[in-house]
Amino acid sequence: MRQIIEHFTDDDLYKFTMCCAVIDNFPRAQVKYTFRDRNDTVYPAGFADELHRQIQALETVVISNDEIDFMKRRCPYIPFWFYSFLKGFRYDAGTITVRQDDMGHLELGIQGCWTNTILLEVKILAIISELYYMMTGQNATFDMEKFGRNSHAKAERLIRGGCRFSDFGTRRRASFAAQDTAIAAMTFCQNNVPGPGRFIGSSNVYLSMKYDLLPIGTMAHEFIAAIGGMYGPQMANHLAMKAWSSTYRGALGTFLYDTYGWDIFSLNFSEDYANMFRGLRVDSGDNAQELERIVNKYHSLGIDPATKQVVFSNALTTDDALTIQKLAQGKCLPSFGIGTHFTNDFEGVPPMNIVIKLVAAKITESWPFFNETCKLSEDFDKNIGNPAVIRRFREALHIV
Fold it and tell me: Which among 66, 125, 62 is positioned nearest to 91, based on CA atoms?
């Protein structure tokens, strides 16, 4: 089969920004990741073998000078030393194990130095999603012309409805072509549809370069989860904010707060960090309830929440974003990161529900053992990790 990932920056920005922060703060940390299919999909026979070939093909993918030049121009907060690292970076298929069980379920794990493995997650998920549709023949049913028209209609509604929105859809896209089609349609709308809203960019760095958009993203749960594994969950948010601010000096100031739930984050979110960070990202829970928590927290610190950005990214649709926009307007500066709804929305083809999550970490390779970690959430079904570890972390955080 054709190689699915052909461009080094066909990836989400937050993987690069986190990689830079990891090198800067935790250069010797070792990690483990695991794959989870929330739909318990049965994959076609031979899927794991073809996936392994696709992962091996990543070893031929290197960053180009054009990609570096674009990132230097559009991402000025990334220190230039990081591009020397990327020039020498090579994917290592040996850090990944993949197999299918007797029922056809997919099992995948990643283990290695955090700086070397962090750039695998999004690419592997994008490969799995596109490869599944290819091997099941469902990609033959994709009507790209209709998909493009629908993408145009979504963007038009959001722009006219006053929403500032971004594409966050690389990980579970139907295909590279689908994401390309969606971004092309949304870029056209931004340039031609009048309205108070705005299509502000994409998390995908390569497609941002293709359409000269602003790459969008900061961090993922893995950054806080790894720190939670190494140092404990009680202060993981504080240590993550400290490390992030050390690397980026106040830039990239949107913090993802729900790795261990609102309560412990709120205790860690002191006035200095609340002033430093531009805002917060809502990725689980009830959007209205989370908004009120955020507004009340800023008020308690003497900060006007109307000056702070709140990015909503919790499995949103166009309708969700328009509803939240009305709710949040005047309370904060709302914006929306929309993923699967933008890049995997074909009639009669259910999108995949797959994740790769960091589940163990150790501070240095010289340690003889890993510390297991987990991701908690405001949504119980989004918890990821060993059930015993989840219980232990919940007890440590007094989550009933």
Answer: 62
Alpha-carbon dihedral 247, 250, 251, 253, rounded to 10 degrees:
110
- Res. 379 pLDDT band, cuts 50 70 90: confident
Nearest-angstrom CA–CA distance, 359 and 373: 5
How does residue 250 score in pLDDT terms, banded at 50, 70 and 90? confident
Strand arrangement of the beta sheet that strand 371-372 belongs to: 96-100, 106-113, 30-37, 354-362, 371-372
Mean of pLDDT values over 165-177: 98
Q: pLDDT at residue 378 above 90? A: no
325 pLDDT band, cuts 50/70/90, is very high
| Contact (CB, 8 A) for 309 and 335 | yes
Q: What one-letter code names the amino acid at 236?
A: A
End-to-end CA distance of the chain: 49
Residues 37-59 have a mean pLDDT of: 98
Both tokens assigned to 150: 């629908």
**Cα 152 from Cα 141, distance rounded (Å):** 20
The band of 380, judged by pLDDT with boundaries at 50, 70 and 90, is confident
The pair of structure tokens assigned to 251 is: 């830039």
Contact 279, 252 (CB under 8 A): no
Tokens of 383: 């918890």
Burial, 207: exposed, middle or buried (Cβ in 10 Å; 0-12, 13-18, 19+)?
buried
Q: Name the residue with tokens 């070939």.
A: 53
Angle at 114 between CA 202 and CA 385, to 5 degrees: 85
231 vs 272: CA distance, rounded Å = 22
Q: Is the pTM of this model over 0.85?
A: yes
Count CB atoms within 10 A of the CB of residue 371.
16
Q: What is the predicted pLDDT for the residue at 377?
A: 83
Q: Is 226 helix (H, G, I), strand (E, B) or coil?
A: helix
C-alpha dihedral, 212 to 218 to 220 to 222, nearest 10°? 120
232: left (phi over 0), alpha (psi -120 to 50) or beta: left
Give buried/exposed letters for 250-284 (b at 16+ CB in 10 A, else e). Answer: eebbbbbbbbbbbebbeebbeeebbeebbbbbbbb
Note whether 96 and 120 are within 8 A (CB).
yes
How confident is the model at residue 106, as a pLDDT? 98
Taking 90 as the threshold, does the pLDDT of residue 238 lie above it?
Answer: yes
